[in-house]
Amino acid sequence: MNALTADQLETYRQAGHLTVADVFTAEQMDAALEDIARWSDEFRSTMTDEQRAWYLERGGTGDDISETPLRKLDQPVFERPAFAQLARHAALVDMVETLIGKGVSVFFSQVFMKPPGIGGPKPVHQDNFYFGPVDLDGMVTAWIALDEATTENGCLFYGDGTNRRGVVPHVAPEGEPFNLLIPPDQLDCEMTAAPVPRGGVSFHHGNTYHQSSANRSNRSRRAVAFHYLRNDVQIAKPALTYDLSRSVTITEA
Ligand SMILES: O=C(O)CCC(=O)C(=O)O
């Protein structure tokens, strides 16, 4: 039996993204959040000035950063056994392999915290510009909603069908070399909201334009993104530096 229906596959191929509800249970999401809380405390106590600028909200400016929330955490699948276990979840891996082929690794992963009232927007970008895989169809992002993601708390928005375009040039705003984005005057598609229930997964093709808005609500919007790569695909032209020694093999072909 296929992990995804023919209709779901067609949606992914045409729109460049697909939302699947109920992949994980509430208990699994609770356990992941507990692990994030422990990891956040550990990380905060060892952060360098450079890391503060990148990992804290508002660039971690100000003398007292003890109340400044974390914006993100990198490499949960490599760093935390609880997340390696989530990335190996059989139903998730079946769906990933249906989308990009058999034999996959998580070569990069990120937790996005987007705290209530503070979490800022992520501008429109293509993951394939950041990562530069040789086969543009050989990478898929599985974005897991640790909290319900809605238009109020900053769910993802996608440019439907942009997966069928190529990769376009991105620029970095002044002082934010890591925040690569498609220049707003080059955007010629509508961005539609993709709310995800807690424990659901939003899959997106690496070419698909996507963004998230600020969290203007009083509810958290925490999510984890697993960037899966088929094992035969090289990361040839990354826009940033990725430490591929931290890639975690999930399955062999
Ligand atoms: O969660 C977000 O706000 C951004 C996520 C994203 O850009 C991604 O998973 O590729």
Features:
253 residues; alpha+beta; Jelly Rolls; 7 helices; seven-stranded antiparallel β-sheet; single chain; 20% strand; four-stranded antiparallel β-sheet; binds 2-oxoglutaric acid
Describe the 3D structure.
Helix content is 26%, strand content 20%. By secondary structure, it is α+β, with helices and mostly antiparallel strands. The protein has one domain: Sandwich (Jelly Rolls), CATH 2.60.120. Strands 1, 2, 3, 5, 8, 10 and 11 form a seven-stranded antiparallel beta sheet that branches. It has a four-stranded antiparallel beta sheet with strand order 4-9-6-7. It is globular and about 55 Å long. 36% of the residues are buried. Bound molecules: 2-oxoglutaric acid. 2-oxoglutaric acid (AKG) binds next to strand 5, strand 9 and strand 10.
